[in-house]
Automatic annotation (TrEMBL):
GO terms for biological process: ribosome biogenesis. GO terms for cellular component: cytoplasm. The gene is obgE. Its EC number is 3.6.5.-. It comes from the Bacteria. Keywords: Cytoplasm, GTP-binding, Hydrolase, Magnesium, Metal-binding, Nucleotide-binding. InterPro entries: G_OBG (IPR031167), GTP-bd (IPR006073), GTP-bd_Obg/CgtA (IPR014100), GTP1-OBG_CS (IPR006074), GTP1_OBG_dom (IPR006169), GTP1_OBG_dom_sf (IPR036726), OBG_GTPase (IPR045086), P-loop_NTPase (IPR027417). Transmembrane segments: none annotated. This is GTPase Obg. It is an enzyme of class 3 (hydrolase). Its cofactor is Mg(2+). Monomer.
Length: 334
């Protein structure tokens, strides 16, 4: 099923029911007083978080949603029934924006979170409400009001503690699957990851969520490749892992490899660029001991001592446990 993270929907709250004009008709009381009841309020529209949904796919086709109208009032001072509310179910991480004003209405970030999005119309009043000392038989009622109507933009921004970044085939998906329960598509070709994948990493009682997004390439910020479409899914992350294929490092090109990605990050969003970022040099199992030693010396010369670095093999799970433990320690110490 295709991953959908953007959708536009139209929501209408219910109209309030009309009031009623009625008079009592009882034996021996030929001119009974007014007994027209009020209408019922219109139903509201709510946005509610649903843990069983992980995409906005349901809103590709069906885009218009209505709450129920309130029922009209009737005689014997009987009020109309309130219209049923309607619940729009969305995945956790969904941001709701008013499409016309561009105002952010709410961020759905918690389990069972519920937001009133469109208020139902107020009920109309029956003629019994208008009885007074100078008007014993009012023939006046009011109609119910229309409910709110809104055009909403739904944008799914996945909630993860840690996000992976890297060029295609750097081993991000393998790393994500080796440390978590994520089911990633791992193939030996560019863009084997075509949509974000979430996985949970369990380190004793220090669990965290990791996100894998498609690889970035030069020009991504201008729309080339896939990753730029999904960078927003890293905006809630507290830590980024920049995964680099150590076998592709050649003399004098380490910083060039790093800056390709960093340049695209900065173009996309300054706050994402400023997030804490660790360098993960992957695929060390593919180097001979001699080549690894030379590469290690070269990297340490080019990388700042303040930059946190790890040397791993996601495929062989070399160094992966230590990396996971350090991530958990970092997240839970903040």
């Amino acid at each position: 099923m295709k991953f959908i993270d953007l959708a536009t929907i139209h929501v209408s709250a219910g109209r309030g029911g009309d009031g009623c004009i009625s008079f009592r008709r009882e034996k021996f009381i030929p001119k009974g007083g007014p007994d027209g009841g009020n209408g019922g309020d219109g139903g509201d529209v709510w946005i509610i978080a649903d843990l069983n949904i992980n995409s906005l796919t349901d809103y590709r086709i069906k885009k218009i949603f209505h709450a129920q109208n309130g029922k009209n009032g009737s005689g014997s001072n009987s009020s109309g029934k309130k219209g049923k509310d309607f619940f729009v179910r969305v995945p956790i991480g969904t941001r709701i924006t008013n499409s016309e004003s561009h105002e952010i209405i709410a961020d759905i970030t918690q389990k069972n979170q519920k937001i009133l999005i469109a208020k139902g119309g107020k009920h109309g009043s029956g003629n019994s409400k208008f009885k007074s000392s100078i008007n014993q038989t009012p023939r006046k009622k009011t109609n119910g009001k229309f409910g709110e109507y809104k055009i909403l933009r739904l944008e799914l921004i996945l909630i993860a503690d840690v996000g992976t970044l890297g060029l295609p085939n750097s081993g991000k998906s393998t790393l994500t699957s080796s440390v978590s329960n994520a089911k990633t598509n791992i193939k030996n070709y560019p863009f084997s990851t075509i949509h974000p994948v979430l996985g949970t990493v369990k380190i004793k009682k220090k669990d965290f969520i990791i996100a894998d997004i498609p690889g970035l390439i030069k020009g991504a910020a201008s729309g080339i490749g896939l990753g730029i479409n999904f960078l927003k899914h890293l905006s809630r992350c507290r830590l980024l892992l920049h995964v680099i294929d150590i076998t592709k490092i050649k003399k004098k090109n380490i910083n060039k490899m790093r800056y390709i990605l960093l340049k695209e990050l900065k173009k996309f969003n300054q706050s994402l660029f400023n997030k804490p970022r660790w360098l993960i040099f992957n695929k060390i199992d593919l180097l001979t001991k001699k080549n690894f030693s030379k590469t290690l010396i070269y990297i340490k010369k080019k990388i700042s001592n303040h930059q946190k670095c790890y040397f791993i093999s996601a495929q062989k799970k070399i160094g992966v446990k230590k990396l996971s433990q350090d991530i958990a320690q970092y997240l839970y110490s903040k």
